[in-house]
Amino acid sequence: QVQLVESGGGLAQPGGSLTLSCATSGFTLEYYAVGWFRQAPGKEREGVSCDSGSFYGTYYADSVKGRFIISRDKGKNTVYLQMNSLKPEDTAVYYCHANLPGPDAWGQGTQVTVSS
């Protein structure tokens, strides 16, 4: 059974950092693209970053480029999103996603709030 479990969210001050983790199970992480999405109150879910796991490389939304870094640890079956220089507009629920054959695989989300 495929599972994605996010953690690491919380409250951060503007300019601060947080690192989100997504523990995966039920599939071989190294074979699939994984990514992070976020949804702020009253807004649609948007893509933040994606790691293709192949020569297609990584993708970052313009709003986070240069501040966020996506990575994966194949041994721990975990995907990370390191978030630096956080801004209030980064406040959202962050979701982990795996691009698997069949139904989309999503985590339950973790809340990130950036406020002074």
Overall form: globular
Structural class: mainly beta
Mean pLDDT: 95
The oligomeric state of the chains shown is single chain
Major beta-sheet overview = 7 strands, mixed
Attribute tags:
four-stranded antiparallel β-sheet; globular; mainly beta; 116 residues
Any overview of this molecule?
The chain is built from no helices and eleven strands. The model has no long low-confidence stretch (mean pLDDT 95). It is 0% helix and 49% strand. The radius of gyration is 13 Å and the shape is globular. It is an all-beta fold and 116 residues long.
Nutshell version of this structure?
Helix content is 0%, strand content 49%. The chain is an all-beta fold.
Topology, element by element:
Layout: E1 3-7, E2 10-12, E3 18-25, E4 34-39, E5 46-51, E6 58-60, E7 68-73, E8 78-83, E9 92-98, E10 105-106, E11 110-114
Parallel strand pairs: 2-11
Antiparallel strand pairs: 1-3, 3-8, 4-5, 4-9, 5-6, 7-8, 9-10, 9-11
